[in-house]
Amino acid sequence: RAGPGDAAQNAGGSVLDMTGLDRIRALDEVAGTVRCDAGVSLERLLRVLPPRGWFPPVVPGTGRLTVGGAIGSDVHGLDHPAAGSLARHVVALELLTADGEVRTVTPGTALFDATAGGLGLTGVILSATLRLKRVTTGLIAVSTERARDLDDLLARFTAGGDRLPYASAWVDLSARGRAAGRGVLTRGEHAPLSVLPAHARRTAARRQREPWAAALSALPGGLLGPAAAALVDEVRYRSAPR
Length: 242
Fold this sequence. Notes:
The chain is α+β, with helices and mostly antiparallel strands. The protein has 2 domains: about 25-135, 2-Layer Sandwich (Uridine Diphospho-n-acetylenolpyruvylglucosamine Reductase, domain 3); about 140-240. The protein is built from 8 helices and 10 strands. The strands form 3 sheets. A 5-stranded antiparallel sheet has the order 1-2-6-4-5, with helices on one face. The protein has a 3-stranded antiparallel sheet with strand order 8-10-9. A hairpin with a 5-residue loop joins β4 (about 90-95) and β5 (about 100-105). It is globular.
């Protein structure tokens, strides 16, 4: 399975790759659930579900996680205050335990509590059924504001409350002095189809990326030294609305 934070690293031992179990087995549009193998990536769910009017209940900072790894790490997303972590949205999972038994595990049991966030210590997650979120499009309407320092950033974050379900903050670690901790606060919500222009409605189900983010992700990791990184941080900060 693939989870955040290199949790699968096991020096001198073995790591079990579950990405071969990658079938989406059923989408129940009445119950609003999807049943899939543990090796299905969240990125794949984000490609498959929005065109059908559904969205994963929790989306972390990367789509490269597998469903099994996400449950084993009990990941959270940008809507954590409202949605909680992924375990809250698991209806059931199949778990292969050390005795060779495949068990159906449901919330409210000790085995479920030990498995969600248990980093694989209770066994191997084979599949899971997740409760989904109903959406009209896969696009997010975003509002962005600039904060002059860390205190301002935290105050803006708190003042926003739960007005919009998704929220994150980028902090400029290159800033010094009175600007230390300055950053950009981004909030978002799912955009209804009615507010989109005609050309956007045709691509409403696709995941979108900022052009600058795509360009930066293509750069080799060691290419940005301190001076270049500071310049990139400055551009990112200045490009955000006040």
